[in-house]
Structure formats: C-alpha cells, structure tokens
Amino acid sequence: MADAKVIPFDDDRSRGSAVQRPQRRRSAGNRRKSGESALVREVQPLPGRAFAQDDVPVTREEQPPQRPQDDGGLERRIASGLAFLRRRLTGDYEVDDFGYDEELTDQVLMSLLRPVYENYFRVEVKGVENIPSEGGALIVANHSGTLPLDGLMMQVAVHDHHPAGRHLRLLAADLVFMLPVVNELARKLGHTLACAEDAERLLGQGELVGVMPEGFKGIGKPFSERYKLQRFGRGGFVSTALRKGTPIIPCSIVGAEEIYPMIGNAKTLARLLGFPYFPLTPTFPWLGPLGGIPLPTKWTIQFGEPIPTDGYPPEAAEDPMLMFNLTDQVREQIQHTLYKLLVQRRSVFF
To answer: SS3 string of 213-236?
Structure first.
C-alpha cells in the first residue's frame, strides 16, 4: 500500500416505558358537581338486605399504581459497554488490512455522528433501495461544503437506512492521512487512500465503496458556484468499476453547500499551511472557534439508479472514449438530480 500510485479520484441502533400515575381529580365530598365526574358516589343499600362491605365502591385513586416492569435493558447496555471497554483495553478486537475497525465504528463513531445527522442536519434519504444488499458497488457523489462532512453523513445514511445495514468505505485524498488524529479516525471509519489498487481490492471483497471525484475543486469552490459540478477528473473511478464489473450508483447531496458559505479564499495563507485552500466565510475566521460551527441546513441525500458495468469486455477498462462517456453519464445524472432536488426544496434550513 505504501507504493500505491494515487489516481485522480479527487483530483488536485427494550426498556418498557414507565407507567404513568393516574391524574388525581378533585371532588367536593360525595356530591357530584355540575359538569364534573365524581370519583366517589353515595351508594344506597338495596332494599331488604344489609349494607355489605362489598358494596363499597373502589375509586381509581384507591388502586395502587402498577410498578414499571424492568426488562433488564439498562443492565444489558451497561454489561455490553463494559465488555466493549474490556476488549479495547486488552486488544481483543480486529481491524482489517486497511485499519478499519467495524466494532468501534458501530459502537462509538456512528453514535457520535448520528445526532448531527438526525437532529442537526435532519438528513432525508431517498433511493436507498438502489444500493445492492450484497456485493461490491461504487457510489459516486458530488462534493461540497468547505469541510468534508458530506462524506460522513453519506456513511451514516447508508448504514442506518439500508436494510442490510451496509458500511460505506470512502476513498479519501492523501491530505486526510497526513493530519494527526484525523488520520487515525479516518482509518477506523473505513476510509482509505484514493488509489486504484485499494479501490479494486475493496470492490473485489464485495465492499460498498464511495468516491467524490470532484475532490478539492468541489469542496473548495466559492459559494457563487454552489451545486455546479466541477470536472470529474480523468474517469479513474469508471475504469476501476469496469475492471471489477461492479455497478456505479450516482448520489446527489443537497444542503452541504450552505453549511460554510465560502465567500473568499486566502490563497497565500493556504500555501503557507500546505492546504489546497483557506476558506473565508461570513463567520470564519472572524468569530474565532465559533466560526467553525456549520450552519444547521436541511439535507437531502438521493441515491440514483445503478449504472451497470458487468456487460463490457475486460479491455473496456482501457478504452478512453468509453470511460469518458460513462463518466459524463454519471456526472450528468448527479447534476440533473441536484437541480431537481433544488426545485423541490422550499427552504435551506427547514
């Protein structure tokens, strides 16, 4: 993997609920008020027989409340958490050859991303049935938002909404693996370098692979060019799909463009820091750390119909014209869906 040649992909979830106590209703003695139900009534003994104890009515207030049944859900969760912690401390867990830690992703990382996905960006997912339940597939999506939160939200969307609960393995730029902490977290989440060898190996293992061919050109474009797809590189992702015969699934993401409206780019500072761009937004860097909080936009992620590649001969992966046509087909389908979703959208935030 260290000698892998980078290809231009990027270019440049029971506890029973507590039984509520019945609400007490006020009564004035034993008389019923007008328009109000009395809890205690006067009971007259029947003619010819004594007043028996059984004749005394039992009111709702005299019935003791039922205790909630504890089914042990909390205990199980605590035991599961302690077992997870023990495995982490003793090293009794597995990672694959790419550093992907499925247990940590399911138990911790997804749990951290899910509140952002569900409550902050309130992501709506469409077309998840277009993702196969098994076998390799390549999901190709647009890239935007100044910071790559769209890839993370797409991972949660696939994992939480697909019936098979599949995991999406993202192909990331080399910059991701050069940053401390980010590098380790990306590997644990299943990200890997955007090179042909890694991509083909994952697809060959029947994994679901995600790529965003716009790369830095898409994520770092100015706000004035929002939802206008940039160039998709040289079609390396198409060549990879053709070699493995896996379907290509276009994916369109609406909402990410507005989380950090990029109104400027400090290019000199970006070169000094070794970044492809240094964003200037209405809040960053003017508000300091507060400027790094994304705007709570409403997101929609739509997965399109798969484009099959298994009907082509093996040499098709080397045909530049075919790769160009397929790349353009994927790009046009994503762009068309973006425009359609934008027309349907009534508000950026609601």
So the answer is: CCCHHHHCCCHHHCCCCCCCCCCH
- Whether 144 and 221 have beta carbons less than 8 Å apart is answered as yes
List beta partners, residue 72.
Answer: none
d(CA 254, CA 143): 10
Give the angle 217-219-221 at the CA atoms, nearest 5°.
60
Residues 6+ apart with CB under 8 A from 140: 210, 211, 212, 213, 237, 248, 249, 250, 251, 330, 334
Look-up: residue for tokens 């231009």?
8
Dihedral sign (CA 284, 287, 292, 294):
negative
> What is the C-alpha to C-alpha distance for residues 349 and 299, in angstroms, rounded to an integer?
9
Q: Give pTM, 2 decimals.
A: 0.77
Closest Cα partner for 250 from 108, 133, 138, 112? Answer: 138
Give the residue among 159, 333, 149, 112 at the shortest CA–CA distance from 255: 149
Q: Among all chains, which residue has been given the structure tokens 């060898």?
A: 197
Take residue 303 and report the two structure tokens written for it. Answer: 């997965």
Confidence at residue 71, expressed as pLDDT on a 0 to 100 scale: 54
Euclidean distance between CA atoms 320 and 317, whole angstroms: 8
Most confident of 40-54, 74-88, 89-103, 293-307: 293-307
CA–CA separation, 84 and 102 (whole Å): 12
